[in-house]
Amino acid sequence: MKKNLLFLFACAIGLMANGQSSETKVTGTKTKAVSSGAHRSFVNHTNAKNPGVPSNAAIIYSQDFAGGIPATWTITDNAGLGEVFTWTTTGSQTTPDSLLSAGTTAANGYVIFDSDNGGTNGAEDCDMVTDAIDCSGKSTVFLSMNEYFLQYAASTATVSISTDGINFTDVYSAETGLGQNQTTGNPHFVQADISSIAANQATVYIRFKFTGDYDWWWMFDDVTLFEPAAVDAGVTGADLVSGCSLSSTTPVTITINNYGGSSISNIPVSFSVNGGTAVNEVAPGPIAPNSSADYTFTATANLSTGASSTVVCSTALSGDANTANDSYSVTVDNFTPVNLSSAYVMDFEAGDDLSAWAVFDGNGDGVTWAPVATLAYSGTQCIRKAGSGSLDDDWMWSGCFDMTAGTTYTLDYWYRQFDLQAPCSLEVKLATAQDVAASSQLIATEVIDSIYHLSSNTFTVPTNGNYYIAWHAFLPSTSPIAGSSSLRVDLVNLSGVTGINEAINVGGVKLFPNPAESVLAIQVKKYDNATVRIFDITGNEIYNAALNEMNTTVDVSNYASGLYLVKVQGQDFSYSEKLTVK
User: Fold this and answer.
1) H or E element: which one contains 302?
2) Mean pLDDT in residue range 442-455
3) What backbone torsions phi and psi does residue 17 show, to the nearest 5 degrees?
4) Is 305 exposed, middle or buried (0-12, 13-18, 19+ CB in 10 A)?
5) Strands 327-335 and 243-244, sheet pairing
6) Tens of pLDDT along 46-78?
7) How crowded is residue 450: how many other Cβ atoms within 10 Å of its Cβ?
8) CB-count exposure of residue 240 (10 Å: 0-12, 13-18, 19+)
9) CA 377 to CA 16: how far, in whole Å?
10) Residue 95 — pLDDT band, cuts 50, 70, 90?
11) Is residue 26 predicted with pLDDT exceeding 70?
């Protein structure tokens, strides 16, 4: 679900080099009424791997659309609007969304029904049916495909099976469980057991049906029918995540997938930490074919020692025809919480440590937070949520901080939108884990502008413990556009407070008086190689000077009344404090 920002930085630079990371991605307006309070979200996200078609499966039929939609397939425009399934390599005509190539053959083309591109012409209804597929002699038949579906209001995207090409039985519906402006994963792997209809049949037809009315789109690829082995099980996920001060008794819950054609029970399972002695238990089941189930070990894992732990979880089912998919490995980082006895400053520069930070691409569109070397407020880099053609739902979490109940904390940061053509909303929350559900206490809701603004906030925590700061970039469902320009955050400063607006000293820095009227005195004990910079509320630098002694003064008599930010940067420290000029 989350990705380390150090890795994302390399990815972001690669995208910039290929021209794929944009500042503004805006699509046409939607004029229909939208339910309030909902925004596009990535549904059923998990850390499980895509199970895919088992490598030992007997392939009955496969279509990757490398040569377009087969001429032998039948496309019927039931609504008579001219809006039908088409072949594409670029995705939607109205948004920059496309089926991702990771785990798919989308690079050589795939199918799309682009309802959004059809506009408000009326209700759409289109069928696309394969030619006959021979499943004779196959007692178990599974269907699989990769898809990317975006719901707007009431569209349906259904896969059905028939043995005569006339009477069809629905076996999958992409819209199930999705609300307004919600999407499946990209790609979302679909697998259905169609044995009750298709097993041992000489003629099997697959129908893809879309209905809607200006209702976004459905993309799909890699349509496959296959016969699985009778016995084939494996672990596809483990509920283990990185965090601060991990426990020596961490629960281990795994997801077991039944890839085979027979129900399985009493499945031997195990886990080991860093190659140590394996813990062996038995998951009772039963697990039906093409199904999965979670199992929580009675034993726990010690993840408290060392900076990281690699946990390998496995099945060992007797008669398993494919042992290559038995195991799942996850590396869990154990971070040390930051002590806020001195201020924490993150400027997102190339040498800054972002290893404990994490992001989540909530809408699954491949766009999320990453460092960039453009339009920084301070230094040469900032953190950016790139422009998106989709309704944003992108989260970023700081590393963890050791916080104490009863202490007031100050959180300052600078933020700006690239432009106001498609502004993205921003809220900041206190979190107990790097997880959406754990990010609940609101710290700030920002008014977005196209110039940098300082956000200065105070908050308290309910109990002693480890906490994170979460930035959430999103587009409300009431937005008339689908997509937004980029959003930047820079120069984050978090500190404890000993009194009202009195920040704990860092690097021996003192500013006085504050508020100032004519002269500001600055005392810096570590003044060697230190500089003082002052910024106004719009982010413009209005003062920059190197220090050559402990005490210096700045004439602020010509400064307009208001709020400023003073930043003192030394060889081994960085300190920021708000300054009020009367």
Assistant:
1) none
2) 83
3) -65, -30
4) exposed
5) parallel
6) 334 556 787 778 999 999 999 999 999 999 999
7) 12
8) buried
9) 19
10) confident
11) no
Instruction: Identify which of 120-134, 415-429, 444-458 has the greatest average pLDDT.
Output: 120-134
Choosing among 2.60.120.200, 3.30.300.130, 2.60.40.1930, 1.10.1530.10, the CATH entry for 58-227 is: 2.60.120.200
Pairwise CA distance, residues 228 & 56, whole Å:
7
Which tokens in the block code for residue 109? 């083309």
What are the tens digits of pLDDT across the range 522-561? 988 888 888 998 988 766 789 999 999 988 999 999 999 8
pLDDT score of 22: 56
Cα–Cα separations (whole angstroms), residue 340 to 120, 184, 506, 509, 575: 55, 40, 11, 16, 13
Strand 243-244 versus strand 142-150 pairing type: unpaired
Q: In 306-413, where does DSSP find H-type helix? A: none
Cα R_g (the chain), whole angstroms: 28
Q: What would the pLDDT profile of 209-261 be if each residue is shown by its tens digit?
A: 999 999 889 999 999 999 999 999 999 999 998 888 899 999 999 999 999 98
Q: What is the pTM of this model?
A: 0.63
Look at residues 190, 183, 192 and name the one whose alpha carbon lies nearest to residue 218.
183
Strands 253-258 and 233-238: antiparallel
Q: Domain boundaries in the chain?
A: 58-227, 233-335, 338-502, 505-581
Would you say 44 and 149 are in contact if contact means Cβ atoms under 8 Å apart?
Answer: no
Residue 198 is predicted with a pLDDT of 98
Q: How does pLDDT run across 260-280, given as a tens digit for each residue? A: 989 999 999 999 999 999 999
Cis peptide before 187 (omega within 30 of 0): yes
Report the CATH fold assignment for 233-335: Immunoglobulin-like (2.60.40)
d(CA 187, CA 391): 17
Whether residue 144 is predicted with pLDDT greater than 70 in this model: the reply is yes
Calpha distance 540→519 (Å, rounded): 20
CATH 3.40.920.10 assigned to domain 505-581? The reply is no
CA distances from residue 136 to 186, 227, 324 in whole angstroms, order as listed? 33, 11, 28
Same CATH fold assignment for domains 233-335 and 338-502: no
Q: What is the pLDDT of residue 7?
A: 35
Q: Which residues contact 370 (CB under 8 A, 6 or more apart)?
A: 5, 8, 9, 11, 12, 359, 383, 384, 386
| Token pair recorded at residue 163 | 């043995």
CATH architecture of the domain with residue range 338-502:
Sandwich (2.60)
